[in-house]
Amino acid sequence: MDEGRTPRRGISPRLWLAGGWLMLALLAAIFAPLVAPQDPLAQDLMLERLPPFWMNGAEPGYWLGTDSLGRDLLSRLIFGGRIAFIVAFAAAIAACMVGSTLGLVAGYFGGWADRIISRIVDVWMAFPPVLFAILLVAVLGTGLSSVILAIAIIDWTRFCRVIRAETMGQSRMDYVENARIAGYGRIGIMLREVLPNVVPSIVALLSLEMGIAVIVEAILSFVNLSISTDDPTWGGIIAEGRLSIHQAWWVLVFPLITLILTVLSFSQFGEALKTRFDPVLR
């Protein structure tokens, strides 16, 4: 190997682990009708509170046991993943597009644009986010679209503040001044020179926001303000499990583990991608 060449780094273990869990959960959610062992809505009081497969009294085909209505827990977790991922992707992308655009404009152009956008962000962030989300859903009405819209309305400020700071730093770099000397317009420099260098931060924030969206949706479904149908959600399953924790602990523990692993995986996946592709860190 040449002495002046930097050795290639392998993919970090946390990228493999986080990406592997997210891919597994996403594929299970997409192909839920094929991989779920039971109908998630089917009730059978003769099978209520069956324990997981390794405990005495378990029934074949009910790998993680059943809830108080005899519904298969594993199937409900798989179908609940559909709601979680839909909200994660839709809400995070909407918040990213609005917040990143405004942050890029505020950080690069400065002046009155920066002052107006920054004041709006300050006012927006004065509201407690979870309470604000509950208030918005209560006003908009329950439903998947209302949950997505509420999360996007609240969390665009996170993107705006971070991307504004990143853009302000990048705008002082020599390559921006060289582009000005070469005759590029301000919008062209912002899109062609500055934006590619803040993309790693956008990717990390987007992945983190997906995890936050999953948590917010779980909180809303926990208090029965998410989707209004009988479709299972992770927060709804946790709410059911809380009522029967002493008789059937698995109904609470397994959705909590699934929720925690998914949120941590989104966070670690974004950080690992930023570390791998950020030109400064490389």
Overview of the structural elements:
The chain is mainly alpha-helical and 282 residues long. It has a single domain (13-30, 64-277), classed as MetI-like fold. The protein has ten helices and no strands. The longest helix has 37 residues, at 73-109. It is elongated, with a radius of gyration of 23 Å.
List the helices and strands and how they pair.
Layout: H1 13-30, H2 32-35, H3 73-109, H4 111-124, H5 129-140, H6 144-171, H7 174-181, H8 186-222, H9 234-243, H10 250-277
Helix pairs in contact: 1-3, 1-10, 3-4, 3-6, 3-8, 5-6, 6-8, 7-8, 8-9, 8-10, 9-10
Give the biggest sheet. none
The chain-level structural class is mainly alpha
CATH class: Mainly Alpha
Q: Please give the number of β-strands.
A: 0
Q: What fraction, in percent, of the residue positions are helical?
A: 55-70%
What is the assigned CATH homologous superfamily?
A: MetI-like
- Tell me the CATH architecture: Orthogonal Bundle
Low-confidence stretches: 1-8
Radius of gyration, rounded?
23 Å
Tally of DSSP helical segments: 10
